[in-house]
Write a structure and sequence with these properties.
By secondary structure, this protein is an alpha/beta fold. The protein has two domains: about 230 residues, Crotonobetainyl-coa:carnitine coa-transferase, domain 1 (Rossmann fold, 3-Layer(aba) Sandwich), CATH 3.40.50.10540; about 70 residues, no CATH class. Helices cover about 40% and strands about 15% of the residues. It has 17 helices and 14 strands. The protein has a seven-stranded mixed beta sheet, with helices on both faces. Strands 9-10-11 form a three-stranded antiparallel beta sheet, with helices on one face. The longest helix has 24 residues. Bound molecules: coenzyme A. Coenzyme A binds next to helix 1, helix 4 and strand 7.
Length: about 375
Amino acid sequence: MKKILENIKILDFTHVWYGPYTTMMLAELGAEVTKVEPPWGTIGRMGPGELHHGTSTTFYALNLNKKGISMDLKNPEVKEMIKELVKQSDVVIQNFAPGTMERLGLGYDVLKEWNPKIIYAALSGFGQTGPYSRYGSYAVIAEAISGHTYSTGKGINIDHPPVTMAGAMGDLGPAMYAAFSIMAAIRYRDQTGEGQMIDCAQIDTMVAFNCCASVAYDLIGESPIQRRAQRPRDPQRIWGVLPVKDGWIQIAGERGKAIENLKQELGVDEVNKDLVLEKIKDMTKMEAFKWLADLGFPCAPIYEAYEAMSDPHLEARDMWVEVEHKVAGKYMIPNFPVKFSKSPGEVNRAAPMLGEHTRMVLKEKLGKTDEELDALEKQGAIVQWKG
Ligand SMILES: CC(C)(COP(=O)(O)OP(=O)(O)OC[C@H]1O[C@@H](n2cnc3c(N)ncnc32)[C@H](O)[C@@H]1OP(=O)(O)O)[C@@H](O)C(=O)NCCC(=O)NCCS
């Protein structure tokens, strides 16, 4: 079946979380992603996450469907090869600190001379311009400066100190914006024949995700947290995290027809949180979830991430696939989550070994001979995984 991004070639210099997640989404939609790593391996191989067979579990999760090549970008012969690869590419993407690609001689100004149609996505913490531009960043940094860390803590209770968000949302959220912007730039290029540079900063995109808080402040002069402190919600509304026999459920109970159904079910004129708590205290989270969801309440069991791997609904939605890695063996991974009726995404390959496809790519794309590649390998300019 034809893939929606078939024939889109991406030269991927991304190294840790934010960048690799962006290119993985595009690879799962069928783009050909060639991941370039230094001979010593990208920092994304070392963390975050536990090491398994010498590589971070996060690396196994964020580099599906990619080919891996390993080259020393500071080597002049490699630079010549990169030039040729850029000429053959639609998109170049990197998430180094601003200035790093320029020092390597691979800034947008250089690459657009080599290929004027190139779409160059520079992913960073604070952006390519502005007073903080040169500062390094990880997810937690963008979460903090955009207001999310503060409100996560205050979401527990109003006096609670800020709390770091779980799940690296300061990487994954910006990655969605980056992938979406690359798609938009491809459309523009297809219509005009022109490439362009995309400057996608974690700070900007995380601020964009916090738009409801900033608009509320601008319009009514108080933040959602201040508003909650001054006008607390009714503690009896059927809302929030509720304990059950084996854990917790989450309920968002402000749905009129669900409340009417619950009244009928219990044969009472009024319902409140205490009534619900009493009814569910001896239920499992699945029993409570199904009872309340069948009554019409938006509701869910609160899972630890691994519990989602055996949820029957997610199984029915085809959300888990198994891939086989050359060294780590078989592992389960979420499938491309969005369903297309004509051109579905798919996961078809585990993360690459360091330099797994170096020779294959350089032969196929640049016509390099074994002798040339032997010489490059001998001087440490490229690395080929030997198995
Ligand atoms: C994450 C971050 C803080 C890491 O900082 P860092 O490890 O110092 O990495 P940098 O991006 O500054 O630079 C990478 C280095 O590896 C080198 N390098 C990378 N790939 C290479 C290759 N294939 N061959 C040779 N050298 C390579 C670069 O030249 C650079 O070295 P230099 O500083 O001597 O020029 C920084 O990259 C950053 O802020 N990125 C943007 C925000 C982001 O995406 N954060 C990660 C979210 S999890």
